[in-house]
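During the second half of the funding period, the structural biology subgroup turned its attention to how the target accommodates small molecules. The most pressing case was thiamine diphosphate, which had performed well in the primary screen but for which no bound structure existed. We therefore specified the complex as follows and requested a full 3D prediction, including the ligand pose.
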Amino acid sequence: MNNDGCETPIRVPSAPFRPGESASFEEWSYSPSDLMKPDPLSCEPKDTIPHSTGLIRVLGDDDSRSGDWDPDISDSDLLIGLEHMVRLRIFDDRMMKMQRTGKLSFYMRSLGEEAVAIAQTMALEEQDWIFPTYRQPGAQFVRGRDMVSMICHCIGNVEDNVKGRQMPVHYTYREGRYISVSSPVGTQFSQAVGVAMASAYKGLDEVTITWIGDGASAEGDYHYALNFASVFRPPVILNVVNNQWAISTHANLASGSSTFADRGLAYDVPCLRVDGNDFLALYSVTDWARKRASAGLGATHIEVLTYRAGAHSSSDDPTRYRPSDEPDVWPGGDPIHRLRDHLISVGAWTEEKHKDLEDRIDSEVMAAYKEAVKFGDLAQGPYPSSDTIFTEVYSDVPWHLQEQWDEMNRLGGD
Ligand SMILES: Cc1ncc(C[n+]2csc(CCOP(=O)(O)OP(=O)(O)O)c2C)c(N)n1
Ligand SMILES: [Mg+2]
């Protein structure tokens, strides 16, 4: 039977819960002590079979950190990570409000997924390349991007570093080796493998990290990337962020495998499945994968198990396709609360300090917005000059574009 109750010769998985139903997930039985950490320098792909079907965790349900995967990271660095996550959440909240009041044309939040890019980028070296999706803007905070410049991009004003050529949130940050987010989803995966191959060819200690969504991992780009990673063993970290949804399509339509992680085993690449709301576990698996990559042992394939707690984008209404209580019953909890509660439990943080941090960051975001609109707002501009349509792609503008450029000027383009 398919979803409509008709006999069908093919299996068409339906989402486990739809609006009006009550969502529930099985309690996670995975604990930090379940999985040992293999030596990254001698581990064979087949040694990671348990890691691709289980779940690597460090932060337990009692807020403590433990297990073989507990990484070498200090409380002071964890506090930096916590601050970046809080900054991203507040930035997202404010920008979404700007979108709702007509000050931005479009926006996408990372709600519930803040730990992913922030923990993983913190585990890298600064020369490493980042090939993100729109759900990893947090990596830019780790790499030091100024919030004013991010807002200028989202508005598309004269200070937008990509001059209005990209959708909002599809950032480019050259100084941070953060490669332009692609609107056609999935393209970054094979590009990342290519760049990693180039780094290896040049003999540089540069690792490339990339992410793809569960939905986009059903595309060919994902498999091309894995195949090249399997054959050439470049220094690349390939993450599939399984946040359960691809807009309104459930993750179960993107893969028939038991987990997203274990698909990489067929390509003879080590595979890890990690609790994506556990900052410490994310840091740990990325550090492990980087050590292998840097030692010339090739790619690691990681499923980041998480939940997209918000709407897909400002154009989406998830109450149309999933129960409204579903985000609340996700067993992975909230990544910010989990790290905050851990740091409080070891005496490195307090509720009061957390509240002060939120207030300080909220003021920071509002000050950044006021600064950004000095370079133009959505309604009034100024916007990048129309001449920039023709610049910065070719060093010598080809004749057919020059003709169009001249015509635009004749017709009175700005
Ligand atoms: C090649 C391509 N197909 C379709 C789209 C439209 N689209 C944009 S995002 C998206 C869902 C992606 O879901 P997923 O890969 O799970 O990432 P998530 O949004 O959950 O992070 C789709 C279908 C697109 N941008 N590019
Ligand atoms: Mg998804």
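Two results from this model are relevant to the next phase. The first helix runs from residue 49 to 53. The mean pLDDT is 96.
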